[in-house]
Design a protein that fits this description.
The protein is 37% helix and 18% strand. It is of the alpha/beta class. Pfam families: Abhydrolase_1, Abhydrolase_4.
């Protein structure tokens, strides 16, 4: 629970009595945000909220939470605030509110809600976690082949962790989602709202789920899409992630077989794909945008997963695979290393550090600590069995590998959800989500059946809200009119490209 105490250092302080709040669940002051026009769009307002780095020590060191707001376009019909988080971990809620919300949400939602985005601590404008670019460029393979390579991975992760802590300050040790939940509650108070509405996507659903656990009585509505199941162990997490990526591959093959515009139509797509990855294993496939770089099989699988499955963009994926398959074999020079995915660097002059919050959040939210090569190899084999064509889980495998060697203590370890005070929460999830297995949503719903309603979208892709008129209307009716779809309701698949 939230420690009681005084929150200091506001830009524009305002005092609010907290007598009505249960002990330990709120601050004794409310800090106001000094709103100003956002640099990227003057129609939106930006500001910061001064908050404790460690909620167990509210009078200790502070950081500035970056916040953005788009006011309801029809003040006479305003319902309240809609807090939003687009996922990650590491995506910017400020960027979402300023740049993406006008095209993402319907006109009805924009008329009735102040849309408020915030950058979770350690992300974007909220004291971002930063790491040495040179050290990030030295990242070893996430697929160690023996105990010695496993030990090298663990040592590298420990070195990187200390480097990121040094460059980021104390926020690095408190970047977990439970701390973000407490930040969100402070933001509610700062906005002067008795109850909030919340829209969370993907990793943003974990923020919503845990806010509902801690502060369920502060919620008016909460819509969660592409849901995270925070009760999973390492094997379940990796295998279910691999299985859903493999399912998306089969959805692509099925589409290509029935669609004449597919660049691989009329051919054995699965055989072409498997052969392409085998050629990549031999060092024969190069990056079309950087011919000097060799692509590994895992890099190709990750590109298909992240760049094309999420949409899904089947046409573009078919073209990408066809172009790689058409390459003439070229042996890799002995000194050249396969290309590994790199974190994004800042634009402009060469940067010594790079924003890299992922593992600061992930490794404090999940107790995934394979202790030796034998255990890690067992997890990898289970992945491969679940996804032989995708070579396991393209994203979650390196995520778990990045926690090898970290301390065993976890700020926000997995547990079954226990929501007791929240109103009915609306969950939507694609049956063929490439990243978050549909079983994650059914598991969360099973844990919280009295407080959640789950509506399946019967198509593919990671995003859900704007997928069809059905998915959009269900969320809009819930947020604006408190309408929950009846049990057994579903939204059919939208037309594919």
């Amino acid at each position: 629970m939230l420690a009681a105490g005084v929150l200091a250092g506001a830009l524009t302080p305002g005092v609010e009595a907290a007598a009505a709040d249960p002990p330990g669940r709120s601050l004794t002051t409310r800090e106001a945000i000094d709103w100003k026009p956002c640099p990227r769009d003057a129609a939106a307002e930006c500001g910061t909220l001064r908050l404790p780095v460690d909620w167990a020590r509210p009078s200790g060191e502070k950081f500035d939470l970056a916040v953005a707001r788009r006011k309801a376009t029809d003040p006479d019909r305003r319902v309240g605030v809609l807090l939003v988080n687009p996922g990650g971990p590491g995506d910017s809620g400020v960027d979402f509110a300023v740049r993406r919300a006008p095209s993402h949400f319907s006109a009805d939602v924009q008329e009735k809600f102040d849309i408020v985005g915030f950058d979770p601590r350690g992300v974007g404008g909220s004291q971002p976690v930063r790491c040495s670019q040179e050290l990030l460029n030295q990242r070893p393979s996430a697929y160690p082949r023996n105990q010695a390579e496993f030990d090298q991975l663990a040592e590298y992760n420990r070195t990187l962790r200390e480097d990121c802590r040094r460059h980021s300050g104390p926020v690095f040790d408190h970047a977990d989602t439970l701390s973000v939940v407490r930040d969100m509650e402070a933001l509610r108070r700062s906005l002067g709202e008795k109850k909030i509405n919340y829209f969370g996507h993907s990793y943003g659903t974990l923020i919503g789920e845990q806010y509902a656990e801690e502060y369920g009585d502060r919620i008016r509505t909460m819509a969660l899409t592409a849901n995270i199941d925070h009760s999973l162990g390492a094997r379940e997490f990796l295998v279910s992630s691999a299985a859903t990526a493999e399912d998306s591959f089969h959805q692509f093959v099925k589409w290509c077989k029935s669609t004449s515009s597919c660049a691989l139509h009329g051919r054995d797509v699965t055989a072409i794909w498997d052969n392409l990855l085998a050629r990549a294993d031999r060092g024969e496939i190069r990056d079309p945008e950087n011919p000097d770089q060799v692509l590994t099989a895992n890099a190709i699988a990750f590109a298909a997963f992240k760049e094309y499955f999420y949409g899904p963009d089947w046409d573009e994926l078919a073209t990408y695979v066809a172009e790689l398959d058409a390459q003439e074999p070229k042996a890799r020079p002995p000194s050249q290393q396969p290309q590994q995915p790199r974190p994004e660097t800042s634009q402009g002059a060469v940067q010594q550090t790079t924003a890299y919050p992922f593992h600061a959040v992930f490794c404090q939210d999940w107790r995934f600590r394979p202790k030796d090569y034998r255990e890690f190899a067992g997890l990898t084999k289970a992945e491969l069995r679940a996804a032989p064509h995708m070579r396991g889980a393209p994203r979650t495998h390196p995520a778990v590998a990045g926690c090898v060697g970290w301390p065993n203590e976890v700020n926000n370890p997995q547990h079954r959800l226990r929501i007791t005070e929240a109103p009915k929460i609306l969950m939507l999830h694609s049956l063929h989500d490439p990243a978050n297995n549909y079983a994650w949503a059914t598991n969360v719903h099973r844990q919280t059946r009295r407080t959640t309603g789950l509506l399946p979208y019967e198509g593919a892709g990671h995003s859900v809200y704007g997928r069809s008129d059905c998915t959009r209307d269900v969320v809009d009716d819930y947020l604006t009119e408190l309408k929950i779809p009846s049990a057994g309701s579903r939204c059919g698949p939208a037309a594919m490209n």
